[in-house]
Specification:
By secondary structure, the protein is α/β, with parallel strands linked by helices. It is 40% helix and 16% strand. The N and C termini lie far apart (35 Å).
């Protein structure tokens, strides 16, 4: 089956080449980089390393993924950041689980194997609050509700609705996947970020919490 990796980027010139090279070890893979107005050499490096680059002018974490998945030719989609924090060497085993164990969507869990260097206590507490909120509101028990690395069938994604175009896309896609198919979490070793984070800890944290409350009211 064909695999498509979708990677959203904003100024990831220090890491995007390494991320792409790591993905090339996977057979029959297409690599799509969705870039939002990078002012460094991100796009140049991505193209040089063999990725297809799609430009999106409007900011939005979810919008970048929606755009990339729309143009993906793969039967299986791999989503991950371009900052090098998510490990590429686990992707092959995850695809094997998807193919042979009847799983439709795998979300990578950063919490179980976390260290204080790769994932701060503040982020851990924030994630825990959102995990509890999701459990109370949607009866969904997750170890890492905010993970940004997933492997799933494109056919499952095409059945999903009401996916946000911002940071809360990460919550929405998991809720939809659990409703529509067999969902599991797999622990991974989350790497240390060497570039400036795009996430605004307090602002995005409260936005994600508020989004869950509104989503529950609407549903």
């Amino acid at each position: 089956m064909k695999i498509t990796a979708v990677i959203p980027t904003i100024n990831e010139e220090k890491t995007i080449g390494q991320v792409i090279e790591g993905l090339k070890s996977i057979d029959n893979i297409e690599i799509i980089v969705v870039d939002t107005n990078s002012t460094d050499r991100t796009k140049e490096i991505a193209i040089k390393n063999g990725a297809r680059v799609i430009n999106v002018d409007q900011k939005g974490y979810g919008l970048a993924y929606k755009t990339g998945i729309k143009y993906a030719g793969g039967d299986i989609i791999v989503c991950m950041d371009g900052d090098g924090t998510y490990p590429h060497d686990v992707i092959k085993p995850l695809i094997q689980i998807l193919l042979y164990d009847g799983v439709d969507f795998i979300s990578c869990d950063r919490m179980t194997l976390r260290t204080e260097h790769s994932y701060t206590s503040l982020h851990y507490i924030g994630n825990l609050v959102l995990n509890i909120t999701m459990r109370v509101l949607f009866k969904i028990k997750l170890t890492d509700s905010q993970s940004g690395m997933w492997v799933f069938y494109k056919s499952l994604y095409e059945k999903m609705h009401n996916l946000d175009s911002g940071m809360t896309f990460s919550e929405d896609i998991k809720i939809e996947a659990i409703k529509l198919g067999k969902f599991i979490e797999v622990p991974i070793l989350y790497g240390v970020r060497i570039t400036k984070p795009k996430l605004k800890t307090w602002g995005d944290g409260f936005a994600n919490l508020f989004h869950l409350l509104i989503k529950r009211i609407k549903n």
